[in-house]
Amino acid sequence: MSSHIGKNISVSVFGQSHSAGIGCVVEGIPAGHQIDREALSAFMRRRAPGGLPWSTPRKEADEPEFLGGLVGDITCGAPLAAVIRNTNTRSSDYDALRRIPRPGHADYVAEVKFGGHQDASGGGHFSGRLTAPLCIAGGIAKQLLEESDVYVGAHLRRVAGIDDVAWDMHALTAEDVIAPGEKLFPVVDDRAGERMMDAIVEARSNRDSVGAVVECAAVGMPVGVGEPMFDGVENAIAAYCFGIPAVKGVEFGRGFEAADMKGSEHNDPYCMDGDRVAFRSNNAGGILGGISTGEPIVFRVAFKPTSSIFVEQDSVDLKDGADAKLSLKGRHDPCVAVRAVPVVEAVCALALYDLLLEERMDR
Ligand SMILES: Cc1cc2nc3c(=O)[nH]c(=O)nc-3n(C[C@H](O)[C@H](O)[C@H](O)COP(=O)(O)O)c2cc1C
Ligand SMILES: C=C(O[C@@H]1CC(C(=O)O)=C[C@@H](OP(=O)(O)O)[C@H]1O)C(=O)O
């Protein structure tokens, strides 16, 4: 397995859901940057599991322990290594799944690929738990971007078919993108949030789960960052997003809606703002030719409904080679996207910071 990504700043994620710990090694962080540890812990808590109606009951503090890369709270230029101990594991929940794989999870493909040697407990290295180390790396990247006045934030755009207010992609401010993340349930419109919560609780009480769309934006990216073809802003963000378990789609700007628009509707007209070239709209989501336009970068990420559900499902018994029924026990998120909102922010920050470093090295 290779769980490594990035060029100028790179991230390796290690560990399994039920191993002694999980963590990351981040290379390429320039020396001399102060890390706000309290802000990082607060960011980690937005993702941490346990205790809320939309969360798995598994309780973990998710407080990172830094083994290298910092002197005091200041980056020293050496690779940054951080671990989180796993404390609240219950591996017996997974005993039966070695024989009877969960539909929709990675149990079966892992069994075939790793010949039974994979760590199946808690979903092993496939688990959403591995997004905690991504939040360590991404939480730091967010802080580094803020030094350059780039602000990243996200909200639940849709849950179980219930819509939050769509962001105005052209008018977005730093305050707009940060605001949902300051709430326990990260939406713009709290009434929509109430309805989403009700839908999640209802799905959970029906032993089922729901999917969702997370909308993320970065405000303050300068014009000219990114490359055409394979090293563009879209490529970098999408590659990171598909590292988040349960992500099935990523769209930028108007995304798939663009396919039903006319050129005259979709083009973002230029205008002069003093002596600066500006745009009248931002259907492009802040990216043209893979390169940032200076407008907010806006994208949406589709999360599938949690596969581990408690209704009886059809599966197979891999030992007997026969059809089998699966009745799951265990602790699972009824909607993974709620806790994944900060994860989307984290990967966005990592992708953009990597591209910004590239731009600075070129000059
Ligand atoms: C924050 C987060 C929490 C998750 N929690 C669960 C969970 O409790 N139960 C589950 O079956 N899947 C959960 N997932 C999704 C699975 O890890 C994922 O579906 C599985 O590894 C298979 O990968 P794939 O869906 O990308 O194909 C979670 C994902 C994230 C990002
Ligand atoms: C622990 C977390 O979520 C876990 C993600 C997960 C999965 O299959 O992705 C399955 C569950 O694992 P367990 O059976 O060990 O409780 C979740 O609780 C976390 O996100 O930190």
Automatic annotation (TrEMBL):
PANTHER family with a match to the protein in the record: CHORISMATE SYNTHASE
Cofactor(s) of this protein: FMNH2
Catalytic reaction equation(s): 5-O-(1-carboxyvinyl)-3-phosphoshikimate = chorismate + phosphate
EC main group: lyase
Keyword terms of this UniProt record: Amino-acid biosynthesis, Aromatic amino acid biosynthesis, FAD, Flavoprotein, FMN, Lyase, NADP
Name of the gene this protein is made from: aroC
Matches recorded under HAMAP family: Chorismate_synth
Protein family (similarity comment): Belongs to the chorismate synthase family.
UniProt-annotated binding residues for FMN: 125-127, 289, 304-308, 331
Matches recorded under InterPro entries: Chorismate_synth, Chorismate_synth_AroC_sf, Chorismate_synthase_CS
Pfam families referenced in this protein's UniProt entry, alphabetically: Chorismate_synt (PF01264)
Protein's organism: Slackia piriformis YIT 12062
Name of protein: Chorismate synthase
Tree of life domain: Bacteria
